[in-house]
Amino acid sequence: MGSERGGGRPVWIGAGVLLAILGFCVTVAGAAALKLDAGLESGWATINHSMALVQRLEALLAQGNGSDVVLRVQTVNSDEVKVIQAHALVLSLHSEVFEELLQARNGSTLVLTELAECAAVFDKFTRYLYCGEISVSLDQAVPLHKLASKYRVWALRQGLSLYMRQHMASDSPAGHVVGWYQYATQTGDAALRDGCLQYLSWNLSSVMQSGEWVAMGDGLLLTLLQRSDLVLHSELELFEALEAWAAQNRPGAAAAESALRAVRYAMIPPQQLFRLQKQSPLLLRYQESVRDLLFLAFQFHAASPQQLAKYFDVNCSLFTPRNYLSPAWGAPWVINNPTRDDRSTSFQTQLGPSGHDAGKRVTWNALFSPRWLPLNLRAPYGEHAGAMLPARADGGGGGVGGSAGHPRIIVTPATSSADFAGVSFQKTVIVAARQQGKAVVRHVYNFHQSTEETGDFLANADLQRRASEYLIDNSLYLHIVVKPIYHTLVIAKK
Predict the structure, then answer these.
(1) With contact defined as beta carbons under 8 Å apart, do 151 and 99 qualify?
(2) pLDDT band at 381 (very low <50, low <70, confident <90, very high)
C-alpha cells in the first residue's frame, strides 16, 4: 500500500497499535516464507511475511484490538450512524486528511459526516486502508471514488478510475457511463472523463439504443455531436437519435438549435433530406436556424465537389464524414487465427458522399500480416490471399518502424483515377473486442492517403494468447472505413 503525503509533519502514533504490530511480528517469526535469492553459496535469502501481515492488520480492524480512535460516521439528513474502532497510525499513514483531523481532535472519537451513498461503503473504504485491497461493484465505484478524493487516498482513487474505465461495457439497469462522465467532469478526473467520452464516441450506435442516450445532458450531447470519430451506421441514424433525445428531454431553443447545427447534413442523401424537411417535427420547428446548412448541403449534392470547392470552404465539419459503418464507406473483416499467415481482401466504397459522386466506386485492397515486413520486401497484390514474401529472420530493416511479429495492415486503392482530383482519403481501421460479454470498439486507428499503413497498429496486442482482449473467439474483428476528404481548390470567395 503506497501513500502520497505532503509536507513533513510528524505522524501521531498510537501505542496500542505499535504494540499490537510488534507482537504480531514475534508471533509469525516461526512461520516465515523463505526464498533463496542467488543460490546456497551466496548466503542471501528473502523472508516474506507480507500476506500474513495483511491478514493480521485486517484482524486488528475487525476485532478492534489496540484501537485508539473511534470513527463515528454520520449520514447526512439521517439518524443513521456507523461506529468503527480504528487505529490512528494506519489512518494517518494513508491519508494526510486523516492525519490533520486526528491531530486536531479532542478525545478519542472522530466524527465524520458523509452522504448516504458514501456512508454505506465506509467500511470498505476503511478496510482498504488496512489491507490495500477492495472489492468493487458498479454502483459502489462513485461513492468510493468520492471518499478516496475527499481523504486524498490517491492510489485508491487511481485504481477506481481504472476500474471504471475498464467496465464501461458492463450492463446496469439505467446505464452508468453518462453518469460517470458527469461525475468525472465535476471532480476533475481527466482520465475517467476522457475514457467515458471515448467509449461513448466509439460505441455510439449501441449507446443510442440504450437508456444512456436520453440521459445525456445538453453539454455532453453537443460535445459528442462535434466529434468526427463517432462510430455509427450513418448521419441519418444520428439525426433520428437526436430527435428521440429531444422528444424525451425537451431542450430549450438554444440547446436544440446548437445540436441541430452540429448535424452534418451534407452526409445525408438528398432524398432523405427532403423527407426530413417535411416530416421531422424537430426540423420543422427549428428549420430557420439551420436553413443555411440545408441549402449548402443541397448545393453540395447537386454540384461536383471540384466546382463547389471553387466557391466554398469545403475543409469544414459539414463536409467531413464520421466513421460510418454502412457498406458505402467500408467493410467488416473477420480474420480467423490472425497469427497463422498473411491475409488480403478487397472491397468498394463510394467515391464521395455528394450526390454527384453517388454512382462512382473505388476498389480497395487491404492486406493484413501478423509479422512486420519492410515495404521494400512486400510483393505486389496478387490474386491469392497472403501474396507476400516471407519475413526476414532479422525483422528486416528500414521502412516503417517495428519488429518481427508486429501485426500490420495496409490499405491501398486498386487503381488511380482522374476522379480523385480534389479528394484524399482517410483510412480508419476499427478493432472490436469483447468486454463484459459484449462486443465493443477496442481501438480506432487512422492513417491518410499519403501512407499505406499506420505504424502503431495493434502495437500492444498479444494475438498469440487465445484469451487476448483483442480477439473474439480467437478471431480478429476489424471494420475498415474509408473517408473521402475534399480540398478547397481555389481560395473561397468572400
Answers:
(1) no
(2) very low
